[in-house]
UniProtKB/TrEMBL annotation:
Keywords: Carbohydrate metabolism, Lyase. InterPro entries: Aldlse_KDPG_KHG, Aldolase_TIM, KDPG/KHG_AS_2. It comes from Rhizobium mayense. The keyword Lyase applies. This is 2-dehydro-3-deoxy-6-phosphogalactonate aldolase. PROSITE patterns: ALDOLASE_KDPG_KHG_2 (PS00160).
Length: 211
């Protein structure tokens, strides 16, 4: 039986996706998100100098924060992520070799899936959880239908088309983890703007889950 790396306990299982962030702004932006109450940060590898930004974030973040990379496509990238101190791996697809290497490095893994076939393949590879993307296309009902055939311990996250505006659509179906991109951060936003978006996001999430 494949051993899964567990998703760490979090008050709010929200992953902030900082696509396009630059190393020189990483400390301020990540600091603002953490101060607001977000404890999982994903820096996609198609950002400028992503491993440098990940290293900066990993060094400054408290121990209970989960820092890592998105858009990871190769085993070599897993090794570079590990060297940078990353503990979270998010992919756009299901590549068993990538999931396996990340698991060997004790990383939390969230491969991207859209179908039951992809979801079950990722589960067999030992993924911590699944990133259903684009969630806006599947909707809560589509994710719920696929979830019925999956191992119950898998963390299910909705990503793509999800924001503070529609958390309740998903939380009513028992989907409580989310990846949040442009609703939180876009290149060019100031630290103050990101902090305000984080505040609004957390308020909306807490209201949706009845916190």
């Amino acid at each position: 039986m494949t051993t899964r790396i567990p998703f760490p306990p979090m008050k709010r299982p929200l992953i902030a996706i900082l696509r396009g962030i630059k190393p020189e702004e990483t400390a301020d932006i990540v600091g603002a998100l953490i101060d607001a109450g977000l404890t999982a940060i994903e820096i996609p590898l198609n950002s400028p100098e992503p491993f440098r930004s990940i290293e900066i974030a990993a060094k400054m973040a408290p121990a209970d924060c989960l820092i890592g990379a998105g858009t990871v496509l190769s085993v070599e990238d897993v090794d570079r992520l590990d060297a940078a101190g990353g503990k979270l791996l998010v992919t756009p697809n299901v590549e068993p070799a990538v999931i396996s290497r990340a698991r060997d490095k004790s990383m939390v893994t969230m491969p991207g899936v859209f179908t039951a076939t992809e979801a079950l393949s990722a589960a067999r590879a030992g993924a911590t959880g699944l990133k259903f993307f684009p969630a806006g296309v599947l909707g809560a009902s589509g994710i719920t239908a696929i979830r019925a055939v999956l191992p119950p311990e898998l963390v299910i996250a909705a990503v793509g088309g999800v924001s503070d505006k529609n958390f309740a659509d998903y939380t009513k179906a028992g989907i409580l983890a989310f990846g949040l991109g442009t609703s939180l951060y876009k290149p060019g936003m100031t630290t103050a703007e990101v902090a305000e978006r984080a505040k609004v996001t957390i308020y909306a999430y807490d209201a949706a889950v009845g916190a």
